[in-house]
Amino acid sequence: MSDPKKLEDLLKLLSMNNGDMSKLTAAQRKEMKDYKFWKTQPVAKFDEDVKEEGPIHGEKTPDDIPDQPLPLLAEFEWCAIDVNNSEELEDVFVLLNENYVEDRDASFRFNYTREFFNWALKSPGWLAEWHIGVRVKTTNKLIAFISAIPVKLRVREKVIDSVEINFLCVHKQLRSKRLTPVLIKEITRRVNKRNIWHALYTAGVVLPSPVSTCRYAHRPLNWNKLYDVQFTDLPPRKTKAEMVAKYTLPKNTKTKGLRLLEEKDVDEVMVLFNKYQERFDMVQQFSKEEFIHWFIGDKSITDPNKKVIFSYVVENDDGKISDLISFYSLPFTILNNSQYKDLGIGYLYYYASDADFKYEDRYNKEGTAALRSRLNSLVQDACVIAAQHKMDVFNALTSQDNTLFLDDLKFGPGDGFLNFYLFNYRAFPITGGLKDDKTYDTEKRSNVGVVML
Ligand code: MYA
């Protein structure tokens, strides 16, 4: 491919948004009847008039579910991937790196690491049987993967035992052969066997039916490098110096009392965090053990380049913690570039702040102004820390209260949209931080309070 990649292309990849259909008109979109697989599944139909929130199919028990895995074509076999086994993990990296993201000229790939997978796939309660692979019997080559982790989800006032499904991938040479429905049915069977009947998942593609849609937003941290590796072009009538100046960040963080989150803070921070999360309609509820896993991660990682999760708190003079901010790192490897080997990418994760707690109404004017100002400082500091850790671009969605700071902090709207789906659960739509014209909705903001990797 000869034309240089545009930042938008990169950002589209970052959003894993293969085949974005969200831009199509309703008439151009596949109709429900054309979703040969999905129309058979317990998911909400397009434009369904939801009368009441709750499960779609009635009560079942694990005994109602077959004990045997779904049949596969004779040349394939199921396998459980042991993420503690380096060879098996390597197979997953190769599969995902080469097939997960459509990189048209293969000049960069996700740089999945053991550290990232330990974080993403081994959260408390994880099960090896939910890391499902499909191998070619004769060669043992891994050609497909799907994973689930257990989560407690709150949708409005109801708390639902669920799983999050992620890293679905089919080898490029085996696409369009209907392997995906088999993977989904098999993971459903294994999850049902454990008496869990609901799932949350996200995808760039439009399926029946998103409960919410958010948009990706991207903040260049190292504009020069993005330009050098041809991820971004120079806009017309702009100079490089102007672009660099536009995105220049302070060298150091500014928020007084900002420091790394430590285990000793967890009880206090969880109170703050849980209170903050109450404002959203869809959140993950963390146990203390889960909170430590997701926010502190593996403390034995000493190499800063291998660190996955970065969590900070603001401790005030009186010793009280008023804010939490976190982001994670998932870099790209740049191939065939003599100057640069990696592209660092930070993803905004969860945050919380007591800035508007004294106002009962989330949309109170003074409360909003206070929160906006606090989030601007916190997220700017997160960008500064990400840049200090050699990250080149910082991603956020329009979820949470993000639309309060995206424009101010120069997060450009991306091409990618992320749809949120619930399996076997009907819910009223949840705002995704977007207006009808898909620009940031700074007023209503989003009611999505869950962050999916
Ligand atoms: S999202 C990330 C998905 N992965 C990628 O984008 C990586 C690159 N792409 C690929 O590897 C393949 O293109 C995939 C499709 C595997 C995506 N989610 O096998 P097929 C439907 C759900 O011939 P292929 C993530 O990881 C499609 O509409 N369904 O297709 C979350 C069609 O169905 P229908 C999808 O192109 C995953 C059928 O598959 C997706 O060879 C959540 C065609 O199958 C998609 N992203 O491979 C999974 N893409 O005929 C659901 C296509 O009806 C979990 N399809 O239109 C559900 C909950 C399960 C647990 C429940 C527990 C209670």
From TrEMBL:
Domain Glycylpeptide N-tetradecanoyltransferase C-terminal stretches: 228-451
InterPro entries referenced in this protein's UniProt entry, alphabetically: Acyl_CoA_acyltransferase, NMT, NMT_C, NMT_CS, NMT_N
Enzyme Commission number(s) of this protein: 2.3.1.97
Keywords in alphabetical order: Acyltransferase, Transferase
Glycylpeptide N-tetradecanoyltransferase N-terminal domain: residues covered: 56-214
Enzyme class: transferase
Catalytic activity: N-terminal glycyl-[protein] + tetradecanoyl-CoA = N-tetradecanoylglycyl-[protein] + CoA + H(+)
Keyword Transmembrane: no
Superkingdom classification of source: Eukaryota
Free-text function comment from the UniProt entry: Adds a myristoyl group to the N-terminal glycine residue of certain cellular proteins.
Family designation: Belongs to the NMT family.
Name of this chain's protein: Glycylpeptide N-tetradecanoyltransferase
Taxonomic path: Eukaryota, Fungi, Dikarya, Ascomycota, Saccharomycotina
